[in-house]
Specification:
Distance between the termini: 38 Å
Number of helices: 6
Number of strands: 3
Mean pLDDT: 86
Radius of gyration: 19 Å
Strand content: 5-15%
Largest sheet: 3 strands, parallel
Length: 118
């Protein structure tokens, strides 16, 4: 995984550089799936440099997998080259269950933390 943390300060050269590094790695890696992970890609949409325009060429026939995570929907020109998975807001029960599962992996602190979840 080649991660890139997007922000309103992102620029197309940085994204392209990370993509190029991932492609070079994939060329020499056998039996490997190389992934460019664009974390919080929606934040880059707020950059005045419009760095996500570089994605248009990358997404035509990418030699590697490209995953973009975002809390916002991207513009249609980028979305039509991608699969969009959306999740609903977790319920209070979902959050409690997640917390209990995390806590159960730390058994020494179970009692104190479980009482806090109640």
């Amino acid at each position: 995984i080649f991660p890139y943390q997007c922000s309103p300060m992102s620029d197309s050269h940085s994204i392209q550089h990370q993509f190029d590094m991932a492609v070079r790695y994939q060329q020499h890696a056998e039996n490997t799936i190389t992934i460019l992970l664009l974390d919080e890609v929606g934040l880059a949409e707020h950059s005045p440099e419009m760095p996500l325009k570089v994605l248009h060429a990358m997404l035509v026939d990418p030699p590697i997998a490209i995953v973009g995570l975002s809390n916002w929907v991207l513009d249609p020109a980028k979305m039509n080259r991608a699969i969009c998975l959306q999740r609903t807001e977790p319920s209070k029960t979902d959050i409690t269950l997640t917390g209990q599962c995390i806590i159960s992996s730390h058994s020494a602190q179970d009692e104190r933390l479980n009482s806090w979840l109640q």
